[in-house]
## 1
Amino acid sequence: MRVVIQRVSSASVTIDGKVKSSIGPGLLILLGVGHDDDAADVDYLVRKTAALRIFNDENGVMNRSVMDVGGDVIVVSQFTLMASTKKGNRPSYIEAAGHEKAIPLYEEFCRRMSEALGKPVGTGEFGADMKVALVNDGPVTICMESPVQGLWQPEE
């Protein structure tokens, strides 16, 4: 599971010309689900993301989390985060989970993030053609993977 986390002054998701979600200061989270991902990946990334200290404290130092500042969150599913570009110029999405696995994990991520924040999170719509707008604050953009992906995979 992969996330791209952007600290925003504002963000919105529009589908078919209608705003589905919009927030003020907080996080826009793009979420990619892989075919090997499960609830443990959701748990790991929700905990890490909710506690990630990327908001400024009174001294202008990034020392506060979205929970600390009472920020809002929008979570948008994005299977293209699972792209492999190792061969050729056309990305391969073979590592992306299919709808039957990705939708429940995306919904679980949103539910768990809402629980962590103590308030609803905005969402996109899985599989829809979405227009995502944001004002990146900083700019601050962080990429993370769950332990199943990338560098955190345990050695055998």
Note: The longest strand covers residues 130-145.
## 2
Amino acid sequence: MRGAQAESGVRTQLLNAVDAGPGHLLAADGYLFATPENLAAVAGLMKDFFDRCYYPALDHIQGRPYATMVCAGSDGHNAARQIARIATGWRLRAAAEPLIVCTHAQTPEQILAPKHIGASDLRSAEELGAALAAGLSLGVF
């Protein structure tokens, strides 16, 4: 969010999936979807968000830009593909390739432990948010 907030003239809103609804999608000019990958899929609460919002937003948000961030223990690509398929149904436009942060958590202890995202990955996330915001500000999207 910090990267997007650095762009003047762009209003940002950070919402947890459980708190976001169709009205938030309809009011926004672009989206940055962020989720952990759990069992090779988007997290359950993110799936719930898409389930609740898909049909109410259908045919109302087409053409808007989106970007995706996934945090995964080993891969992350399946969660990114799920979001891309939903975005295709909504007819959104990908503003960037998905950002996938891999924590390499493979053992039960590593999986259950709090995750620490490195400075390089945090910088990449910030740059993704800044690029999406700049594109919106400049009218590129």
Note: Strands lie at 31-38, 41-42, 65-72, 93-94, 99-102.
